[in-house]
Automatic annotation (TrEMBL):
It comes from the Bacteria. Keywords: Membrane, Transmembrane, Transmembrane helix. It comes from Pedobacter changchengzhani. The chain crosses the membrane at residues 524-542. This is WG repeat-containing protein.
């Protein structure tokens, strides 16, 4: 019995440990690339806030010994980079770059070997294809003798490849464990000469290959699904390779006057016209028109003079509007533009009503940051109107303008000689006409919040930098003090330069040290002069005596 109780307690304890707490880095954006800086190659890791422009960190790690003049990138996938120079071919694993000053990479082939390759993973060596990779200085290599020799790349990931020759398109699925297995499958009915690749959002793990009459959903591991029959059941039977991908996240394509999209939620059932069989269909095909917004994500379609939410694949929730819907264009979120500006309500049955703001008003997009939200805005010369996600026509949020200059500077609006962060105004002094935003970086005080009561919450501080014709300025989200960086020359700093902003942060208070030195040196000079004068006076008096 005691053992059971202990097991229960351990299970409860473990479940509390694995509960997901809120962490700042759940919301950040990470990118990697190889860059040339000052004549040397570096692995660059960049992490940014969800607003897309505020840096969290950026690291440049030297690819020590790589010759820039002969450098050539063979390929990149989700796991790493493969590149060559005059001394050989190298593999850099992205997950190994967290520690150390220099980048870690390993030689996998000698110079001149593996010139013919598929994305730096499959190499044609001694008349056959071989897979070669290296992680943590352990090389994995095995041959794929059944793979045709004259193939070219269509799309590749670290363990899954889609290639083609002049006859077929193939999916290659690798198992790089100790068994070192591989599978090669032909995508049936696909013409290699007509094949196109549609790259969608990486988080979906679902891209597409298509020719004129056949279409496949493909995965990063080499698996694929033929969706051709689903498209036929929708009445769409040709031109799959001539579509334009309008929204990769949904995904949604335009084909002539029609759109094809992945259904949101449950599939529908249709009859396969070739077999008469009733099948599940995960796609929607219609003559609707996508309303591509000026900013933000796609939210609506236009169909038979009505506007519908993008997820309404059955067109069951038409908007209510007094003017013709074809006069409207999407701006951002629920904001539309026509004869004037219109807004789709939240609770009044998708009613789109005029908000009585002139169509000549200037639009500024919303800026969502982790610790704040700058709403989209309209400016008509007399007022700045803040358009939140729950805009109320009866209690509109607007501010009268007392100055002509209105700007969006990073995650702020500048108007009435003050910065506005979506909640408060902070008066500043600057040359407002020439004032620009250099950028910002985040200082993470507490990265994660615990699940238990009274535990510290996530805390971050945003450090912002600006410049005008005369000065460079600093402002942060904690103190809200507008500060001139007196020792900085604006011509030395460009926008969106992480290293430049870090340097500015270090010298933002240097002026006080310089002033102290000047005062100290002036006192010593004065003291020396006094000593000399007193000495001369004493000498003269002594001579007279």
């Amino acid at each position: 019995m005691m053992r059971i109780i202990i097991l229960i307690l351990l299970t409860v304890f473990a479940s509390n440990l694995v509960k997901a707490s809120e962490c700042y880095d759940y919301h950040t954006i990470r990118t990697t690339k190889l860059v040339t800086i000052g004549g040397s190659m570096y692995f660059q890791f960049t992490e940014k806030d969800q607003n897309g422009f505020t840096y969290v960190q950026q690291e440049n790690k030297l690819l020590k010994g790589i010759d820039v003049a002969s450098y050539k990138l063979y390929g990149e996938d989700e796991s790493g980079f493969v590149f060559a120079d005059k001394s050989g071919v190298f593999n850099l694993n992205k997950n190994e770059q967290y520690d150390g000053i220099d980048a870690k990479f390993y030689k996998i082939l000698n110079a001149g070997e593996g010139v013919k390759n598929i994305n730096g993973r499959l190499f044609l060596l001694n008349g056959k294809w071989s897979f070669i990779s290296n992680a943590y200085n352990k090389t994995t290599k095995f041959d794929l003798p059944k793979l045709p020799l004259n193939i070219v790349n269509v799309k590749s990931w670290s363990n899954g490849f889609y290639v083609k020759d002049d006859k077929n398109v193939y999916a290659v699925k690798l198992d790089i464990s100790d068994t070192k297995k591989y599978q090669i499958k032909m995508l049936p009915g696909v013409s290699p000469a007509e094949t196109v690749y549609y790259g969608c959002s990486p988080g979906l793990n679902e891209d597409y290959l298509a020719d004129k009459n056949t279409m496949f959903s493909i995965r990063t591991d080499g698996d694929f699904v033929d969706i051709t029959q689903q498209l036929y059941a929708l009445g769409f039977s040709s031109g799959f390779n001539a579509m334009r991908l309008l929204d990769a996240k949904i995904p949604l394509w335009q084909t002539g006057n029609f759109i094809l999209k992945k259904r949101d939620g449950a599939s529908s059932t249709r009859k396969n016209p070739l077999t008469g069989e009733v099948i599940d269909v995960e796609y929607a095909y219609s003559s609707a028109k996508l309303l591509e917004p000026q900013a933000g994500e796609t939210s609506y379609t236009f169909f038979k003079n009505h506007i519908y939410p993008i997820w309404d694949d059955n067109f069951s929730l038409p908007s209510q509007i007094k003017i013709s819907a074809n006069q409207l264009v999407a701006v951002e979120g629920k904001l539309f533009k026509g004869p004037d500006f219109y807004y789709m309500g939240n609770t009044d049955n998708y009613k789109i009503a005029s908000i009585n703001i002139s169509a000549n008003a200037k639009f500024y997009p919303a800026i969502p940051s982790y610790s704040g939200y700058l709403p989209k805005a309209l400016v008509d010369g007399k007022f700045i109107y803040f358009i939140g996600e729950r805009f109320d026509l009866k209690s509109e949020n607007k501010k009268a303008l007392t100055s002509k200059i209105v700007k969006q500077l990073g995650s702020f609006y500048l108007f009435n000689n003050a910065l506005h962060d979506g909640t408060k105004n902070y008066p500043i002094t600057a040359d407002y006409e020439s004032l620009t935003y250099l950028g910002s970086f985040v200082e993470v005080i507490n990265g994660c919040a615990g699940d238990m009561p009274n535990t510290p919450q996530v805390e971050v501080v945003y450090h912002h930098f600006f410049k005008d014709a005369d000065n460079v300025y600093y402002f942060n989200s904690r103190d809200h003090n507008w500060q001139v960086i007196e020792t900085a020359n604006g011509t030395d700093y460009e926008a969106n330069d992480y290293a430049g902003m870090k340097a500015l942060h270090k010298i933002k208070n240097v002026k006080f040290a310089i002033e102290a030195k000047v005062i100290t040196s002036t006192n010593y000079s004065l003291l020396a002069i006094c000593v000399v004068v007193l000495g001369l006076a004493g000498f003269v008096i002594f001579k007279k005596k």
